[in-house]
């Protein structure tokens, strides 16, 4: 029967996951600890490693199915012979690029992709749509994605390639166009990932439970920009990391929370829980949705420690290696929509937290300074909060403290 592949422990309080995709198919050679499947939990994606080296045997669970921790999802056939036996098959697959009759997938001549073609080439729904719209032959592409999978970037690159363009039939010569055109209307149904379902549930829960209100202010970023320009090279040389804006805002939030502790508190039953520490949840964009890792005891960290932590989270989010433990907890959230060009927004709190600070893009705007109209790099700030716990006066005070610290960063050094 082979060696069983089981769902590993996924973290505290996580008992089940959804099988996102199989990374191996029956007959593929597998090394010990090599990922064979990807699981999606409420918070992160987790790879399932092979316990031994051998050949992937049988997938016992379908993609999209819910599995419990410890459940058997596949089998691995042991033995070095099995691993070497796959080498000729792989060599044959490589040579197939010069032998069209050996291609594993049915020939694609532009237009619609059949289910058999998509399955044989392991095309995701979005890649399948890109292939259909471009008319590129996916069988001739070399995938650059995980385990050689074809990505949308591969399709776009092939479409712009002269060689690929020359290989495509002329649109005028197509007798019966099945290719999508501006006049065609199509739909695609894609099952929500477990992470996206959790995000939707939690955001709606926040709206249903909390008395949400948003207060705005703006801040002149001149002094922070000047400080970064003055010290960025020395900072990077000493700490090996770039000096960003987030460190300033985390430090400013720590000072403001001392004056307005309700912003860093939570409601639990009929009690208010105040924290004498600041664990900042930083919203990070990941391929499968927004994730919120936590900078723990951020109020005790230096600028360098904050920037290194954030950079590490960003790299892990892109690679899909953030752990559930890294996203657990958090007493206050900072969300920077400005990196995507957002001018203004009303962020939603991350329960059970009571407040979230929204940052936005920096742009030069006319402001009055000492009776003169001058151009200044301005940013809008938005504080969304649970009005059951945080009063309007406290919310305004918190934003004013943030504004004061950013417009005069010296306050961050002398604790004002």
CATH architecture of the largest domain: 2-Layer Sandwich
Q: Can you tell me the CATH superfamily of the largest domain?
A: Chloramphenicol acetyltransferase-like domain
Percent helix: 25-40%
Distance between the termini: 68 Å
Largest sheet: 7 strands, mixed
Low-confidence region ranges: 80-110, 162-178
Q: What is the average of the pLDDT values?
A: 80
Please tell me the total number of domains. Answer: 3
CATH class of the largest domain: Alpha Beta
Tell me what you see in this structure.
This protein is α+β, with helices and mostly antiparallel strands and 416 residues long. The protein has three domains: 3-83, Beta Barrel (OB fold (Dihydrolipoamide Acetyltransferase, E2P)), CATH 2.40.50; 104-191, no CATH class; 195-414, 2-Layer Sandwich (Chloramphenicol Acetyltransferase), CATH 3.30.559.10. The chain has eleven helices and 19 strands. The protein has helices spanning 80-95, 115-121, 125-134, 152-160, 162-167, 194-209, 222-239, 246-259, 303-319, 392-407, 410-414; strands at 3-6, 16-22, 29-30, 35-40, 45-49, 54-59, 66-68, 72-78, 212-220, 265-268, 271-274, 280-282, 284-286, 289-291, 294-295, 332-336, 355-359, 363-369, 372-386. The strands form five sheets. Strands 9, 12, 15, 16, 17, 18 and 19 form a seven-stranded mixed β-sheet that branches. A four-stranded antiparallel β-sheet has the order 1-8-6-3, with helices on one face. Helix 3 packs parallel to helix 4 (152-160). The longest helix is centred in the middle third of the chain and has 18 residues, at 222-239.
